């Protein structure tokens, strides 16, 4: 069947403009969705891995009751094939040659760290090295600041309790040196086997036993199921998602990528729908002829179904050929930002949505018009028959819209995303209806003539049905692209605001009340003023409405906050990045009440008016919940679950003060002087972590930009599809106009004006619908406040008008370059 | 297939009381009014009439491209209105050939492939050999690999004629076969058509307003405002 086969070959199809558009749309859709899904899964692995290295393991079990956990718990974990490790953390005084210092000791077993690396500096002033083990027995690694504080050198000895240990290295960074405020004093790291010989730990000492676990996710989960019933309240099981501080940035990047992917799906669907309808129209003569030559409708159906299948395969293969190198590049970019890159891994499950996109857009959007080809009357070979009115296509369109939004839902797993986008589209179509009515009512009065403006307006009116459907598709495309641009802008702004270059990167903790002014003045003089200082009182939340909280709150609700001492504070005014969601902030002079952080309130079912009791040392403090507020945990500033008013119940409790400030990297040495001047103030350095987050955000931003480019390419394909749909008609009109004596300049100007009007209208509608969709999305997916982005939004209708008028000019090329007669004959 | 060829005396085409109406927005238009005719095997018949007289509609109904509002068309023993669309397609594939005014070649296929297409659709053997022979016969043996765009109007119509005869049809329908061609080319094309028709012994039904071409057929019908006037004998017409 050489001839019939040739009729179906993709190579032949490629020569047809509409098929090229369908294939390009499919390829871009598959490429975008696949790249995004692959990258999102890579990002997810990076996230888990980074978070794991924040724990130095996949999971941690902490015992805060000063006793090790029963040995069988650990043996059970090993029996289940999990890697395990052990740490003991406590504070103690250490002695150098002739000075002593309170330090925070971390004694680790041979396995530490199970995940991530330690960064140390060896004995010879050598370079930094990354190692995956702690110090050997008999040795210690210490925080570099201790060299000055104790006036010792690497190689000297240090006394920990009754044991002398050799300083064999400096700890520059620990994988689990996250944001825990327990690490107040400078670090001394030793081997866990040496702990007993120091004699420091006595019955009742304040000590924390930490157990590390790593292994297959399923095994970890199984083990936890086994362990959970045996855990006591003082035991805390920590997973990667619990200790998140920086994961929110990446989470939101992931949301963004999913949104991008969903938009790619929608855009591809639109392009496929437009181009395949156009293709179906152009195939009617061929179908009529094939019928005349004796091919039955089922044969016609098979012929085109086979062709759709070939397109599908071409789209999938082509899409993957684009996606894989792109994914590789993006992963390389991300890896460069990470110190411990996650190996490049092709997650084949991530490809499913991409392939599904191709199948759904083909069968929901391309198949219906092509299926209707079977109904083309054979009589068409003798005489042209009335075409489709578009009414037949309506039920198909509804099914297709359901299908594609179902796909988005499946893909992004966000109902709110689907609703926001559908809402935006509905708004757009409503506005379009109004515009159509206005167009018909006002343009009807315009009379044609030798003026470009009038010709353009008459053109719009004469093609009003085509004009409106073009505006609809352009506006939809612009809406989707603008949505993405807006979300990207607000995401980047948000990240920038969250982690500006001068974000606080050091915490000062344990500032005695009488040293507060002095410490503030110290940094003020050095040009690095402190952020607000907060008092901090440690206390446990013990009773809720007079009942012991552990009885009132079900075991499922038990959050970490109940198991440990909370940092309570009082503050005169609401921090700028906190938002009251219920109740109201303390009034001037009010001394009772407490403001609770929203997530904790939700987890414990706390409501306004609940009476909370805190145990602080041997005292009890009562307070009624007067407000619930959200907190920016990743603001790198002190944040509190519980805030009291000044002069309230906390005022007389023993407090120390806490603050954060920014210190540039090149001035880090000044910290030594500060530590000597204020030896009791603890310093928490988080500059390394912040730099890492900033670098990751930068790389993810690049990935997002790359995705945006892909989406915009998809939008251009849609535009090309729509414009090429009317190409022949417009060329014929242009040729006729020239034949009848129209000047070239008139033709050019009126066409460009007509397209500019189309683009302008579509731009205004699209941008309005995008703002509406973003407004809805911002609340639900990105948890940010909505703000208008005039600077982004305003140029879009203008750009769309300019681009479309250039498109129009480009369309006219053949009309202007050849004689009208030749053109008319060619278009016959 | 309901066709039976056993009775070679049966007319190739029998039309009884054929009426065709189309509904417009406001009223109904009657295009053909109670047309009846019979065409025997091997005959060549011209249907002559002015634009809008209904001759193309009649041709479409005779060839089974459309179904009438009333009346019957019996083509080679099969009553067309009783066949399903697919059965009509089958009938066309095996028994019917077409030549159109606007050639109707598939632009993406070469001359050879255009001629092979109906052979392949009818499931015939060695389609390429047969297509080559026919293209040689119509004088295009050197142009096999050319696409319609690379051929002149007359050449395109030759390809169409080769295609029409390719599946060895019992009956050939031609719709203004010279309508898009200049006089001389038109003459060449009508010569070729009549010659092939003779050689193959095909029944020919042709719609035309070209009196000269019509005169070369054995019988002529005139159609005006949807009504067919009695066939006039060739001899009487000459007087």
Automatic annotation (TrEMBL), chain B:
PANTHER family: IMPORT ATP-BINDING PROTEIN, LIPOPROTEIN-RELEASING SYSTEM ATP-BINDING PROTEIN LOLD. Residues 13-237 form the ABC transporter domain. Keywords: ATP-binding, Nucleotide-binding, Transport. It comes from the Bacteria. Gene3D superfamilies: P-loop containing nucleotide triphosphate hydrolases. GO terms for molecular function: ATP binding. It holds the Pfam family ABC_tran. PROSITE patterns: ABC_TRANSPORTER_1, ABC_TRANSPORTER_2. Belongs to the ABC transporter superfamily. It comes from Marinobacter xiaoshiensis. This is ABC transporter ATP-binding protein.
